[in-house]
Amino acid sequence: MDIVTVEQHSPEELISCLRRVPLLKQPEVLIYNHALITMEQIHPDFLHPAQNYLWLEELRKTQELRWSLKAWGVDLFRLDGYVTYTVRLNDGQEVVYDLYPPIVEESLEADGTLALIINDGMHRLYLARLEWVVPQVVYIRGVPKAYPYYAFPRPERWQGLDLLPENPDPQTYLKKCHRQRDNKRLFRDFQAVFHNVGHPRSRLLKK
Length: 207
Description:
Layout: E1 3-9, H1 11-18, E2 36-41, E3 53-55, H2 56-70, E4 82-88, E5 94-99, E6 103-108, E7 114-120, H3 122-130, E8 136-141, E9 162-164
Parallel strand pairs: 3-9, 6-8
Antiparallel strand pairs: 1-4, 2-8, 4-5, 6-7
Helix pairs in contact: 2-3
């Protein structure tokens, strides 16, 4: 991965950006505007993924990103805010990305369990487990009860996750257990605030 520039942003800048994140289909709802947002170091074993699988290609890309950022003095597992980095592709094109710590939301489930749902950054957190690292995350409390994360947390956390070579077909594989039929009404639209987040980085590995 050919990273050509890296810019660091403070925790205060990150929190300010997160307060402007809307819901994808309800852009008038700024989901974290009044939430308590902190940066914490939490062991991944205490967190609840919502997704039932890990994509091996994405895990490899995450590992490559970790190594590439390390060469710039940036620790993927301790960003202390967020970073903006620019990647030069094979054709000479440059693409700008923002990278913030994994997003974890506190969610009270129907049986009374207080689950720490991984909203974004599941592959990074799994890699942290493999490297025996306690990573830094964005920990969000006080999300409005009317707008929970769009999928349920896995009761068994990481246990039983599938490691798949390809992104599975949602028609034949249950990726997540959604909370409602139109689950995208609860989807947090980070892309509305940050550059190229939540997008696959497959092109970046083809040097």
